[in-house]
Records
---
Amino acid sequence: MTPRLVILTEIISPYRIPLFNALHQSGGVKLYVIFLAETDPNLRQWRVYKEDIRFSYQTLSSWRKRLGRYKLLLNRGLGQALNDASPDAILCGGYNYVASWQALDWARSR
């Protein structure tokens, strides 16, 4: 049985699309990527190349606010997205977003 992997990451970065495509095409895992937002218009001005995406993904609804030098990003629907994906493992790129801690809590409860 192929393990199900969820990658939880902030935005759709053009330089990560080929990496995620290769991981998906390798067949070693069943990949599902959850993006916390499509982009950050205040920080990133790049085009989102959705037509190049070959892996399964979802972009959560989000609310973003800058508080001085800190950025707050809140999401809706992470728990349901994880339930739907039913991952064997979650790869999370850090701990600086509330969603990262929610994913940890979701994983610990299962």
---
Amino acid sequence: MVVQNVAAGDNAASEFQDGLVLVTKDGKWGLADTRGKLVVPMQYDGMMGNFKESGWLACSGCQVVHQGEHWWLSGGKWVRLDTRGRVAGDASDPSAPMITP
């Protein structure tokens, strides 16, 4: 099975994690299963890979920031998605500096 629109990772296609893979098209991001079916529609402005402790991170209204050959997502409203792609709660912008008391 070929999954279309798989997002690029570190110089290669993103890998499946928990049966899902990042997909992107026309500036929008989502998640597809191993059959290529969209589990999360391409509705987010950015997404980050599956983090075992917090799940996938997705943002609306975030922007791509470039520095040399590197890029990251910043700003916007962030949510956590569980391993099935369901919204599991709000998340902090991972690019924001950590403030410790």
---
Amino acid sequence: MVGHTFIYNPAVRRLKEYIDSDELGDICYIYAVRVNLGRIRKDINAMWNFAPHDISIINYLLGEVPMKVGATGYSYIQDGIEDVVFMNLVYPENVL
């Protein structure tokens, strides 16, 4: 159950209330960026280190899991360990 800690954050919970009440209108897409390298790990790439948190938040907000996932990573700092990753999650049309 990795990455689920942030769904208990009051700000994330409030955003979920806004979405569920339709106060924000139709959600067309969600865009997330992590730009801080943080601690550079030698055992895991950026996606496996950070993305579970973001994916968990988005799944919680939308009440669904993605039906398609694509990711491309690049190793700039260490060979073979991607420190930059671009990921695209596609959710069912009835969610967005």
---
Amino acid sequence: MNGRIYIPNNQKIKEKILQKNHDLVDIEHPGQQQMMELIKRNYWWPGIKNDVKKYIQECFKCQQNKVQHMKKTGELHPLKIPEGPWQEISINIIGPLPKSNEKDTIVVIVD
């Protein structure tokens, strides 16, 4: 553990360490990688990576300020109004969504 302090399986102690390294005045709300580096300088416990990830995911400010790494969606082009049934069909897949009966996607088919 290279001179780091081993933290026992005590959630209150872990929470205090996570909070202390997350709410620093000069680098308030660091990302997951930076917070891991800060904590690992002095502390170690089994499952530290999962605890840091969970703490960041539960922080409202972090999620609100999170940078989106997705491409912007393209322009929508509406379909022409068809003359009758089965002339224009569109399919849309929505997901991933929270799981329900082991399913996390919706397929929408419009005629």
